[in-house]
Amino acid sequence: MLVSFLLMLVSTGAGAGEELLFWNFWDQKFILPVIERFERENPGIRIRSEQMNWGNGFDKVVIAMANGRAPDICELGSTWMGRFMAEGALIDISSQTADLKQQYLMWEAVTSNGKVFGLPWLVSTRVLFYNRQLLRQAGIDPDKPPQTWAELLAAARLIHDPKSGVYGFGMNAGEGHILYKKFMPFVWGNGGHILAPDGRFVFASPETLAALEFYLQLKEYSYCEKQDMLDEAFKLGKLGLAISGSWNFARYPVDAPQLDFGVAMMPCPAENRGVSTSFLGGQVLALFKGCRNPEAAARFIRFLATASNTLPITREAMVSFPADQKAYSDQFFHSDPRMQVFVEQIKTARHPPVVSAWVEIEKIINEAVEKGMYGTPADKVLAEASDRYAELEQRLASRPVEYSRSALPAGGHAVATSRHSEPEGLRLLALFSLFAVAILIVSIYLLYMNRAAGAGISGFLSAGKASPIEQGQRTLLFLSPWLLTFLIFWLYPLVFSLILSFCSYDAFHPALFKFAGLQNYVRLLGDQDFARAFLNTLIFVVATTPVTTALALALALLVNSLKRGSQFFRSVFFLPSIISIVVTATIFKSVYAPVGILNRLLAVVGVPAQAWLVDSQLAMPAIIVMNIWVYTGYYMVLYLAALKAVPGELYEAADVDGASDWQQFFHITLPQIRYMTVFILTVNTIRNWRVFAEIFTLTRGGPVGSTDTLVHHLYETAFRYHEMGYASAMAFVLLVVILVFSVLQMRAMQAVRQ
Amino acid sequence: MKTHFWKQSGTLTLLTALGLSYLYPWLYMVARSFMRHEPGMADGGDSFTLEFYRLIIGDAGFPGFLLNSVVVLTAVLIANVFFSLLVGYAFARYRFPGKKVLFWLILATLMIPRQTLMVPLLDLMVRFGLYDSLWALILPFGVDGFNLFLMKQFIENLPADLEDAARADGASEFAIVWHVVAPLSRPAIAVLIINTAIVNWNSFIFPLIFTDTASVRTLPVALAYFAQGPHATDWGALMAGASVSSLPLIILFWLFQKQIIEGITSGALKD
After folding, report:
1. By CA distance, what is B140's nearest residue in A?
2. A422 or A170, which is more confident?
3. Could you report the predicted ipTM of this complex, rounded to two decimals?
4. Average pLDDT over residues A330-354
5. pLDDT band (50, 70, 90) for residue A619
6. Whole-structure pTM over 0.80, yes or no?
7. Best of A583, A700, A719, A739 to disrupt the B interface by mutation (most B CBs within 10 Å)?
8. Were A265 and a residue from A276, A732, B169, B197 both cysteine, which residue would form a disulfide, CB within 3.0 to 4.6 Å?
9. What is the C-alpha radius of gyration for chain A, rounded to an integer number of angstroms?
10. pLDDT for A692
């Protein structure tokens, strides 16, 4: 104890007494004990751990990097490495990890140009899960699961019996971003590739076409739903075959103890053709360029990634296995013979290409498969993928220069200073000009007040005790909250957004603005995804607004005509509109679920169950209906107030004249509530153009982008794909559209008022 | 007379049917949150359980999210009441150059959807070091054009005698607003609070974008993440989360229905 204390005192290591910041995704109960042990064995080094979540981990790291606040040590997803390495954001740790080459898996994910920039930590793969009982019932020996494509197709066909609620194969639908992990193994197994060694896009090959055509054949005998629904179906014994990962291996025995399931290696194309391979992914540990003590950090990640320190994570969550192959001799992997399948598959699994634009390529591949699933012919889908890749290549050519090629040395203090803000040219300019404008306003104002008083113009309400300057100051003071809010949170963002829309902006290099003229707007014109989002939103607005308004009026008339109980009904119908739409969407998620109430009600009248949120034709209508349900009550209340304001004498007079109810409605009621109708239509339309929360909660843009609305598309462009310049152009177009509508409708409202 | 009776009962029946369809989701939400459903067993396998609430209140951290929502709401309400009174008063009572221009600017902010400014606003937050903090959820929303209009309109309709009298007694303008105008504006302030509270409590996209860590997350965002996380089809847990997120508002609504609805409608009825 005394010795280590003295050692600490005299320790002069770089960053002695400084803490190294470590960002990771795991429950801290796994991380903190390891850190504790490491600090004990390495006095003088302190590590502080912060937990992130997978939902926006990538964004958080990118934003931190952009602001010079990246952590010293970071856990990164293996598919992110391509981008981070290309940007030169990580420290070369080839020498610190050379001795681990044979021992660890997944080096392809961390190597670039022969240099190593991360230490593989956790790996995971996908295998074929099968329900032994369903296999047996279909006449297949459960100890001989499908090992070739033909066998897989046959098994799916034999098991598939939707009438009894049993499905053959579990196919991911409605979640574009997972598809490629299930599909690529078939491509790779057949000899296909995404990128050739020289970087060419070779996805559209005969091998891939064959794989895609086979995969689509499976669809006929498949249950097409989101991953969570597939897992549930498998758990309930309703799904025969599914491609899934080791986390289910942990969950199925707990959630469904009676489930008799097995796992097998992924099928290969045929007995003597192709290989059994699967998707390999995982997490790595890397050091960011500004790391304050690379030597200590490297020691830490080596310590953390060892089998013994990583196995606790695997044992509990089973989501991933250690990259350290020493782990596989542990009892844990031998307690259940089925685990060996995972171990074997990991050895033959393949990691997707590790390139800078992987996130964009992933999107292209996912879309291709999804389109194929929803009906586009396979060859067309592949041709489109090639086209989109060509477009992507063009765009990549205009990306700002990599940091590693600019005047920054690898690691060291020059980069440490990048932790402070760099000159932010345009941003400062915008801010400065705004302050100038503000000061200008204030000075002109005070001058005017002074002149007005000097010229003897009276007209200020306050008694002449205070001088005009004081009055001016006071007025400004009163108005200042709004003025400041307006300047900072409205005008500045507006101007900055406009400027940004003319730039190509890279979240990784926010200081490097590149003026790109009308490029973003031109791209917007030809962007099919944007056009689709526009169309979807238009459909949403046109379908929702009139229906909601009409129903609201109908309900209001009904409720208004009641002698008693109108208060009760008013509240019941109104309630959903003030509850967060996220809550309502969560409840409707259950309603629209494959085994949800809606399908069960329909079954009573003989209508087959529909995949409401996963069918590209039904998803949007489902959301539209939910929206109508929620907001009708809100407008009903407004209409009720308007109806009560209609003078009763009008109706009495009409009664005397013998007018029928319908006549009274058309000639008295409708004209009297005209103002409210226009008001409701206006508010309703504007609100519907901005629809976002329910899309985010339920479908994230939905099957093949069928529920992708403008604001959601904007959100994804800005915060998932980080194309801020392009997003700004999009935002501006959206702004103009909504503004035009608002103005038109305000005019209509004023006209009606006369 | 007879047709009148049939019309009434027909209307009542129809409304009751519709009303049930509106009540059902809430009843389902509460019921399901207490129900443990054994998969693989016939529908008789349901049992009462508190495990989902234990999850929501414990591991999932919903009390923390609730607290964040409350803190943000309180700050936004205080700011809005305070500032709307001041600015509304200035617009209602003072004459000053540029009044029309400023008025139109306020109108413009009502017509520009804030979501289209999400990118630069986030950039702003990051630059000022406010990203991932509760301040980011409070500052941009401290003043709202709608509330400004509301107060301005109301104050305009107040007789100015009391204010003039106070001024003659030498009271400062602040004091006038605070001690004379504010108490008289209680109805408008109530409307303001109700409208602002509902919008702010349910606010989603900006808390989503401006925050990241659980320590500053608000309820709607937390629920959305929860519905996409490992409990995505854990219906009991989802319904428990939904209940915790909505029951406070439902209870408040049931207690103050009249005021809330009046608040909403009076905002719409200009006349």
Report:
1. A489
2. A170
3. 0.90
4. 90
5. very high
6. yes
7. A583
8. A276
9. 32
10. 94
